[in-house]
Every structure is written in C-alpha cells, then in structure tokens.
C-alpha cells in the first residue's frame, strides 16, 4: 500500500467516527454553580412536528446538607459557547457538551409549572457531570435551578408530592451514597434567589437505586442491592468482610454467571416498601422498618440490567397494593427464557404473600400500572412468544375484582413501548414505534371506546406527564435527527409549545446538516424497505464520501432521534453523506417485518443493504462511489464481518469499521449471556441441536475472502458480545496480513463511550479522507 496513504490519513476528518459512540465521560469530583435563570424558550417546534422480614436498618435521618463547592469552577454550555467568536462544524465533543433534559412533571394540582432534570457537563473538557432539578413557570417561562450543581452529584427519580414538596434520590449524602432527599419549596419560586438545600431522609449503608412514592404520599418503595436472604445492614457487613478478605474467587452453580457488564455474585435488586408520614416540621420520615418484598428470593425487581421503578413498579390508587415485575432467576433457565411476571401484594396487613397475576403466560409480562382512580384495575405490557425479546408488546387490562384480562387494540401490529394513564383513569397515552418515529397515540376510553387518536406523528417522543385537570394536555420530551432533546407542552387544541432552551447558545455556534430525508426502495422479497439520507453539512455542491451505517439490534431501527453515541450529524458535519438503512428485521414497520430476520441473519438484511446502497448511489449523484466506508455495531458489526467475506459487496467499500460485532456465531451461542437471543434468532435452535443454523451465515467461515482494511473496537466488560469475538476477527485480519487495528477498552461494555482520539485511530485504516479546511471540505484520495 502506498505510504502516502498513511500521511494523508493523518489529516482525516477529525472525528467522523467519533460518532461510533462518544466520549468517555470522566467524573471529576469538582464543584460548580450556574446561573439561576435561563432565557425564554424557542418560539416554535420544528416545522415537521407538529412480605417478609423487615430490613433492620436505620430508617430515617433528618438533616440538611450543604456541600462545599467552588463557584469559579462552573460554566454552563451557554456561557462557554457565547464566549466563542466563530461558528464551527458540529463534532462529537459538541454533542457531549449538550445539556440532557428528562423527566418533566407538571405541578400536581394546577399544572401551571413544571419541574425536570437537567444533566450538565464540565466545560469545556467534559471532566465531570452533575444533574440538578429545575423549575419553570409555564406562563412567564421563568426558569430556576433548584438544587446546587456539584460535579459528581446526581439528582434523579423525583416525585412532586404537593406544591411545596419533592422527594428524590441523590448522592448528595456525606457518605456519597445515593439516598432519599426532600426538597421543600417556597410558595413563590419565581422570587427564589439561591439554591434550596435538600434534607436527607434516609441514611442506609447501601445505595438506594430506585424510588417510587404512592399518590397519597403514605407509602414509598425503594430498591437496594442485597443478598437474597440478608437485610441491608447484613448485606453491607458481608460485602465489607469479603472486601477485607482479599479473595477474588467466584463460584457458580447456575446461570447467569454474568449479565451485560457485571458478574452475578449474589447481589439482587430487591424492592423495600415502607409507610411514611410528615412530621410537624414538614419533613417526611419513614414510620416503620421497610419490608423486603422479595426476601429470600434469588431474583431482581426492577429487572437487570435496564429495568427501573417508574416502569416496573406501581402503587394502587389508595396505595394499599403494590405491583412489581420480576424475572424467574432461580435456575439456569433464566438464560434461555424471557419469562417476566407481574406480582401484587396487599400492604394493609403485614406478612401478606405476593400473588402472581400473569404466571399462565411463559413469555414476558412487565410494566404494571394501576389506574389512578380504580383500586382493582391495572394495565401492563405483554408478549405472547416465549424466548423472544423482540416480540410485539400488547397492552392488557387486568381487573382484580373479576380476575379477568382483556387485550386492548388486539388487531394492531405495532409494539407498544410505553403507556401512561390519563388522570381521570379513562384513557391511555401510548408511545409506539411507527416507521422509524416514536409517536404518541391517545386511546380514548379503555372501557367503551377503543378508538385511538394520533397526537404526535414524527420525531421521537418520550416521558409523557399529563396535566392534572386538563384533558389531552401533557408535557413530554422530543427530539429528531436534526435537533437534540427538549421539553414540550402539548395542549388540548393540538398546539405544541417548546419549553426549554438550555442548548440554544451551543446550537447557534455549530453548523449542522439541515436535512434528514426518509426514502424507500424495493428490498428483499420485493418488499418496501426504508432508509435515511443525511447530506453533508456543507452541502452537496461537490463530491462527498459516504458513511454507510448499519444498525444493531438487529430488531431495532435508525429512528428519527438524536443520539449521543451514533449521531448521524457527527458524520455529516465532517463532510460525509450518511445512508442508514432499516433492513428486514428492523422494528417499527410491523411485527411481520421484525420477525423476518429470524434464521436469516446473512440473507434478507444483506440483500436490503446491497439494494439500499444501489439506490443511494443512483439517486444522490453527489456521492462519490469510490469513497464509501461501512460501519456497524453489535449486529451491525456482525454484518460488517459478513460483508467482509462477500466479495460482491466488500468490493464496493474502501474500508470497514466493526464495533463489538459478532464474528463466530457458533462460539457466540455458547459464550453470550442471554442465550434466548442467539437461539431465537437462529430459528429457535440451540447450537448442539442444529449446528448448521449457526454456520449458514457465520462470518468466520468466509475469512479467506477478507481483503479490506478494518478497525475493530471492543469493550472488555461487554458480556453480550464477548471481547473474544472482536479479538478473533482482529487475529484473522492480522494472520491474513490485512491492514487493521484493534481498539480495546478494558473497562467499557457494549455501549462504551470513548475519547475523541478515536478519529485518529480510524485514520489508520481509512485510505480516503475528508480534510476540512476552514469551512470548506477538501476531499483527498
């Protein structure tokens, strides 16, 4: 290879693949302090939107803590970007400097204001983050930061109890452990001149990981990671004894050995339920010892690794019943089944047993949500196919008084992602993936009228929180491929109003692509397949290289959504055209389309990608077909390895990038943790029952055809696609004397975040580069 290739590569795009999953955010324990108010929000949305032993632990601690902090160390992203003189093309560092907004909640009685979470990063070096509570008046747009921002301190999972009270989790405790805190609000927040110091309510020896408060604020539930047969203090003592022993040998008698990014050494997420009361000084206290609902049961609730209390726990309207999701972890079948079940427990009498209300279904049942008005009703999401994590989620309505279940909208072929009750208990807001958008539907009446109205039909909407008194009025978060997440208000008249503007200054100083075009073509089986085209931020007036992105899952999609990892704007801002195909197996196009990938890993999606590339090169004439790079992660990384061994396709690319990709399907079937994933996708076969199902589309069998340079990226704590998959692929490349490089992250998992220097590493294997000089793109071969 011409040595000049390496020289020119040294000027390459400074981050085109930074998008491959952003930066490692190092939490520096620094202090900070921001402005107390922010400007009024942007004026409009984008044009396109329209029973058991008690936990013998100290129950409560009432103390107000003020952590020392250094005001001079704080700078908001608005302050930093306002100080910049010139605009520049957007890059992954800019992406990671964006404030992240979540969990909007309207005032619990009048709905005239809201509180939400804002996560900020240390400017400009990203060496730390902090999450704080913010309040905003919906009439005046007055915005106040309620809690003091301190680097490394994160507020989370709050409940607005009444106009003056918030309960939330935070690691602001002097122990640095996450505990329950109370924030007492003044009657008029608009006049607040300083931060409110929260009061610490609990002082346990373990972190509290989840929090849920019932509607009447008479009970709450929280979770700690405990040993199944020990209480909180006993668990802490055992952990300390194990640490002091210096032993690091683990013994296993069943699966899981490890899951996602942690070894299963006995600690479990257990829900603790406890009564609470308000003292004469207005501060809540725990009025009894918390009860571990799963005591002596080797199982998790919320489920690991991604379950949370908001989705998987629920109190009934009176607070006298508690529902929760748990997995059947008692034996090794947890690794090859997807059987989650919903249990309820009557809290009125101590020692009542938990009752399984879904055990007749051996597929997934999860996310119980009690009616806000009827003690006996709850809805939940349910699969019907055992062992299939991407089966269609349907909504079921359970009536405890009649012991009946009804499937709502049973004729739909879309999967329900989330559901939220209206305050009157008559209707449901539904979040649904539909043709690569996460849209909002309104189920008018769950009892008499199952008609649905489409409220938000584009972009990605989440975190619905209804107005307490006004029908069809709610706050929510919204983002697209072209704009990061903000908080919006949807009103009864269908108007949509943006409420937050924390990232306005940043966005005003970066140059982004202004177009994300959805296109379709005839794919495999002569069926319509969809994709995205994002042109370079500098325009299409000159030939541009192509970044051909392949999503993971595989049962997911490239959504019309902003990403802090694989962000299409990070490529387009570096001068690339971006094509992203939602091939057969992608979700949001109907369940049959999603199911079609089963047993077809290397066929239907591969054909779609070939035809999609044909379409892009034929219809977007500015793309330089001689400078095309393919990049993929997880299943997308599998497809990179598959393409590498198929000369008819690999010959169309200059280089390949594989992030945590599958290399040897047979080995994967024995080494991944979630066996249900590989077994179902192979056609419901184990490796030993039908080896050919794993060998038919196995990239390792085609290494003799590999010729392209490749960058391989792995995380040592990735237990979904174990590191040996990437190491094996790199070994094959090196043995064949193919230009290649392995980036190995010893502390990261399947979703690791890595530093900007990744762009330089990518240069090692990319023979064609895009060198940006000033605001123009100079393309070099």
From TrEMBL:
One of its GO terms (biological process) is proteolysis. SUPFAM superfamilies: alpha/beta-Hydrolases, DPP6 N-terminal domain-like. The keyword Hydrolase applies. It holds the Pfam family Peptidase_S9. The chain crosses the membrane at residues 5-29. Residues 562-752 form the Peptidase S9 prolyl oligopeptidase catalytic domain. GO terms for molecular function: serine-type endopeptidase activity. InterPro entries: 6-blade_b-propeller_TolB-like (IPR011042), AB_hydrolase_fold (IPR029058), Peptidase_S9_cat (IPR001375). The keyword Protease applies. Keywords: Hydrolase, Membrane, Protease, Signal, Transmembrane, Transmembrane helix. Belongs to the peptidase S9C family. This is Peptidase S9 prolyl oligopeptidase catalytic domain-containing protein. The lineage of its organism: Eukaryota, Metazoa, Spiralia, Gnathifera, Rotifera.
